[in-house]
Amino acid sequence: MEFLPVTKQEMLDRGWTQCDFVYVCGDAYVDHPSFGHAIISRILERHGYNVGIISQPDWKNPRSIDVFGRPRLGFLVSGGNMDSMVNHYSVTKHRRKTDAFTPGGVMGKRPDYATVVYCNLIRQTYRDVPILIGGIEASLRRLAHYDYWSESMKRSILLDSQADLLMYGMGEKSIVEIAEALNAGMDVKDITYIDGTVFKTADLDDSLPTLVLPAYEEIKKDKRAYAQSFRVQYGNCDPFTAKRLAEPYGKEYVVQNPPQKPLTMAEMDAVYDLPYCRTYHPSYEKLGGVPAIEEVKFSLVSNRGCFGACSFCALTFHQGRIVQVRSHNSILKEAEQMVKDKDFKGYIHDVGGPTANFRHPACEKQMTKGACGGRQCLYPAPCKNINADHSDYVALLRKLRKIPGVKKVFIRSGIRFDYLLAEQKQTFFRELVQYHVSGQLKVAPEHVSDAVLSRMGKPRNAVYNRFVEQYFALSKQYGLEQYLVPYLMSSHPGSTMKVEELMSEIRQQGFSDLAMVSDAILEKNGKLTVIPKAEFAPPSLGQLGVKAPQEVLMHVVLSGGTYNDEGLRLIGHDRAWLDAQLARRGYAKEQLFCVTGNEAGHLLLIPSGEKQTAPSGEVSL
Question: Which pairing describes strands 603-607 and 618-619: parallel, antiparallel, or unpaired?
């Protein structure tokens, strides 16, 4: 196995005079199937196309995308595994300090709105070469959308990027069809028929059933029009029932074809059996490597898609509601290859996907007729037709545990607890607790208020409480001290009180006006936590002539001596940074009950056996 070329000399060494495709990506080059650019480039290679990789080009220098010269068929452009704005900014719009997808974790190696910037950079040099865009950034911005970062409505990214064609979703089928069409000499403007693509045109094809969405100018002015448009889009994410959508922009349209059909098990296996190097490019070694590989290097992708269909989640819009899975043989083969890695210590970190315990479609009809329109599989309660059988997942996990060299198999992807509880046998629940928890299990109740949960499309809080009760009972039965890490949201629609009650609560905390409040969180005990706007935080730093930083929430980064990698990611740091801070205070992680921190680098330490934290436990950078 060898990496695809990243320099012209490497291209020439392969005997190529020209690349068929040049892939420009906002991430470092990591040849691992958890990275979109690796999958797409290896699929093209398997079909006989020559692909060169340009990772994180200097967007201020047009020559940076000219490494291989003019590609024969086109440029492929992706912002990376994350939307570049999510990669750069926290939800409070603070600039993140590190980028796990860049060598050494260095921030700032890709621009904001990377897909648009890269495409416009290419157009400065190659005005007539086809540009094909994909990845999560393009997929979720394929039609007009509200941009949180600029607080404005933006056009389809296809227009702002000057690209010719957009691939949304995972793209394994659409990229091959596009490559074959271009290779056959078809003009990219005529490639308007491929599922999972978005194109622009001046004329709509009347022979195809098409839903015309509200025009961009209309949704810019009217929030309700935008909401209605998105509802139509959301209702047309199913590959078996979706219609073609057209969004007007003056005299032209942006047209979305229905999603690509779900992959069969054999097709999924073929994708993950490609000859990946399974690590980052060796040129990054001297820069400290690519941190993102650590979370996935010893993890196994079991599935994709999610029939949970939570109202706040982008998965339906990107991967769809139909779960697709790999075979046991494919996963076991990858695990056996993993065991041979010199860095493998005996621990498989995860066996899952968007939702770990989904190993087949919600019901038999989904793979031929699609998911039910206007209904959900799990909300408000599991559908009577749902197949909540976990036996296939249990059998897979048992096989993995028996592989020589494997000490433990953990599950770190989210568990859908209402689906777990819907199974009568509960074999998976018992074995999950007994064998597959690394001290703490991630679950996503998302909220504690039933009024909010109903808007989220999540089960009532009583369902989560039942799961918690059984989880700790099983842990006690097996003599295990294990914890839960619940994911919760604040400020979701529905998180409201009567105005009079809200005003009374914030006045009791010293704020006379709602304009002084940045966020208000209704806690499980009924109390209101108020986070003031920076200039009104007591004492007011603004009044003292000091630049006032926005107050931010503290996140758990260590619990019971175990790292919380998600909490570290949210504050922009990693395990090495935390170890260094603890060493400065004279603590080993095993001595601490809990550590919380925020993006500003402040830590709060609670030693084991102490119920409260002394002021000396604070560390500032």
Answer: antiparallel
